[in-house]
Design a protein that fits this description.
This protein is of the alpha/beta class and 397 residues long. The protein folds into two domains: 1-80 and 110-130, no CATH class; 133-396, 4-Layer Sandwich (Purple Acid Phosphatase, chain A, domain 2), CATH 3.60.21.10. Helices cover 32% and strands 15% of the residues. The chain has nine helices and 14 strands. It has helices spanning 5-16, 29-38, 46-76, 117-129, 160-172, 201-216, 235-243, 255-260, 303-319, and strands at 144-150, 177-181, 221-225, 266-268, 271-272, 278-279, 282-285, 289-292, 327-330, 336-340, 345-349, 376-383, 386-387, 393-396. Strands 1, 2, 3, 4, 12, 13 and 14 form a seven-stranded mixed β-sheet that branches. Strands 7-8-9-11-10 form a five-stranded mixed β-sheet, with helices on one face. A two-stranded antiparallel ribbon has the order 5-6.
Length: 397
């Protein structure tokens, strides 16, 4: 029996075509594992089956791109007939196009708008993993605005179950808009640290785009700013400095623009200081909420929040931020911490990263006082731009 990975991919594709006779659904990853083990496949586990499913999804991407190119070539081959006299217009209010006759001009008729190719790719991915989602549903804003704030998602290596649960919870409590407050994307290929995953930069960007498109389809509007992984001056910036002369940096897109290209309801944000400086790692929401992704680290739980609060108090007025913030948040640490003061809330917003991508916290035998990250997100509630501290809360998933 051929036990190669290529044979596994072919067998998984065959099994995916066999719907469950009772439910009529396509078998998911768990059921695939059971069937493959029963058939005598060796070394079958979640990672190997997952990679087989991802390979199928990428193949569908290639097929979709090829189909799109073929349709474009067919349209390019359309030609017009030799010019001649046009027929007299009809008297109907909305005249129907005349039947083409010899010697008349046949104007080019634009084809109906096509769905973006990545819409088809994501649908194929959902079909592969047995999930579905509405495409960019337009939800009406509510007078009391609710935002779901996520940080450190590290797509495409997010904790898939935690993120799906977090998004479903946000929808169920009326969050129509979302923020990704730094490190939404991993950029593993650009890491200076050794990684066990072998993936090309192009493949990682394609996977991250598909995941981002799914995430954005669940909210009316999504805003995102960079962190130390995906910000222009973080891991990506260090890579540019090492590989490309500084005078050519202007030719390279912002890494977030690269991944989010073509997604209609997402906006890259930051903060513009009064003196013209752009800060890409923080953003003010409404009149009194400041979201950040500051690169602070401390073994003591919550110590980063005190340092951040002092920094905002000293630098906020000079940078054009609110002088009396009621909510200050930060990501980066992957921790979940809430400090309540008299009329202020300080929050470490947790993460949505998989345990796999957090290997630096447990692979080092020296045990450098690093605690496991916490899967969580913040529900930010504002009324006329003022944060409602009694309803704003951190939710663990």
């Amino acid at each position: 029996m051929d036990q190669s990975f290529e044979a596994l991919v072919r067998r998984v594709a065959e099994l995916r075509r066999e719907k469950d006779p009772h439910t009529g659904k396509i078998p998911g990853q768990f059921l695939l594992e059971r069937k493959l083990v029963a058939e005598g496949w060796a070394k079958i586990g979640p990672n190997r089956v997952r990679k087989a499913l991802e390979t199928l999804a990428l193949q569908r991407t290639i097929d979709a791109l090829g189909a799109r190119a073929t349709s474009a070539e067919e349209r390019a081959r359309e030609v017009a007939v030799t010019p001649g006299p046009l027929p007299a217009p009809t008297q109907s209010i909305e005249p129907s196009p005349p039947e083409p006759t010899a010697g008349m001009i046949v104007p080019y008729k634009a084809p109906p708008p096509q769905r973006p190719v990545y819409d088809n790719v994501v649908d194929a991915l959902y079909a592969t993993i047995g999930k579905g989602a509405s495409r960019f549903a337009q939800k009406a804003a509510t007078p009391s605005e609710r935002y779901a704030v996520y940080s450190d998602v590290h797509m495409p290596w997010e904790a898939e179950e935690a993120l799906h649960n977090g998004v479903a919870l946000a929808e169920s409590i009326g969050c129509t808009q979302a923020y990704i407050a730094g490190d939404g994307f991993e950029f593993m290929k650009l890491s200076r640290w050794p990684k066990e995953e072998h993936i090309s930069f192009v493949e990682e960007v394609a996977r991250a785009h598909a995941k981002a498109e799914w995430f954005c389809s669940r909210f009316h509007r999504v805003r995102i700013f960079g962190g130390n992984h995906d910000g222009k001056h973080g891991r990506f910036g260090r890579f540019l400095n090492e590989r490309l002369a500084e005078e050519f940096h202007f030719l390279v897109k912002d890494p977030l623009e690269l991944i989010l290209a073509g997604i209609p309801n997402v906006e890259i944000v930051g903060h513009e200081a009064p003196f013209g400086e752009h800060l890409g790692w923080l953003h003010q929401v409404g009149k009194d909420a400041i979201l950040t992704h500051c690169e602070l680290g401390s073994a003591q739980q919550g110590a980063n929040l005190e340092r951040l609060k002092n920094w905002v108090r000293e630098w906020g007025p000079r940078l054009g931020l609110t002088s009396i913030p009621r909510l200050i948040t930060t990501g980066h640490t992957h921790r979940s911490t809430v400090h309540h003061e008299d009329d202020r809330m300080l929050v470490e917003t947790g993460c949505m990263a998989s345990w796999q991508i957090q290997g630096y916290q447990y692979k080092d035998a020296t045990l450098k006082n690093r605690k496991p990250g916490v899967h969580a997100f913040l529900v930010l509630v504002q009324e006329d731009g003022v944060t409602n501290l009694s309803e704003t809360r951190l939710i663990r998933v």
